[in-house]
Amino acid sequence: MLTAFAVKAAEEEAPSLLLPTLPDLIWGTIVFVIILAFFIWRVVPRLNAALDARADAIEGGLKRAEEAQAGAQSALEEYKAQLAEARAEAATIRDAAREDAKRIRAELVEQAQADAARIVTSAQAQIEAERQSALVSLRAEVGAIAIDLASGVVGESLNDKRSKDIVDRLLADLETESKAKA
After folding, report:
1. Which long-range contacts (CB under 8 A, 24 or more apart) does 136-144 make?
2. What tens digit of pLDDT does each residue of 27-51 get?
3. Distance spanning both ends of the chain, measured CA to CA
4. Exposed (0-12), middle (13-18) or buried (19+): which is 6, by Cβ within 10 Å?
């Protein structure tokens, strides 16, 4: 009988696929409210906390990125200032080196000229000393030749001191005459 009753009831009411029956609607609503309360009580706060933490992390990351960019900009400007200062210092050093090179070159030229003048003076003194030595030697030889020649002409020996003095006086007179003409 129960089965006959259930079959009869099933035949009389055809359930609608779009509209649920009243008990299904009530139980479905109760379960939905319980699940909704559970989500609001447990899941939503955790989800909000995770979203807040993520938002804080993003904001902190943006703030750190802005600070890093500002730091990089200040470091770049400091680097540019140091580079400009280094270039100015290099230019100063280069100019000082050029001035030193000019000064050293002038000193070397002056020293070379002084050395050349000293060498020329020394050479002239040496030449004058050799000329004087040659002149003394030449006088002695000319005097000896003149005495030998005169001895040959006179026929007597003229090798005494008096004859040498006469020849030396004669050569000195000839030398003063040649200097007077020059």
Report:
1. 139/168, 139/171, 142/167, 142/171, 143/167, 143/168, 143/171
2. 999 999 999 999 999 989 999 999 9
3. 178
4. exposed
SS3 letters for 48-115?
HHHHHHHHHHHHHHHHHHHHHHHHHHHHHHHHHHHHHHHHHHHHHHHHHHHHHHHHHHHHHHHHHHHH
Average pLDDT, consecutive stretches of 10 residues, N- to C-terminus, the chain (182 residues): 54 68 90 94 92 90 88 91 92 93 93 92 91 80 73 64 71 77 69
Residue with tokens 């509209």: 19
Single-letter code of the amino acid located at 56: D
- From CA 118, how far away is CA 110, in angstroms rounded? 12
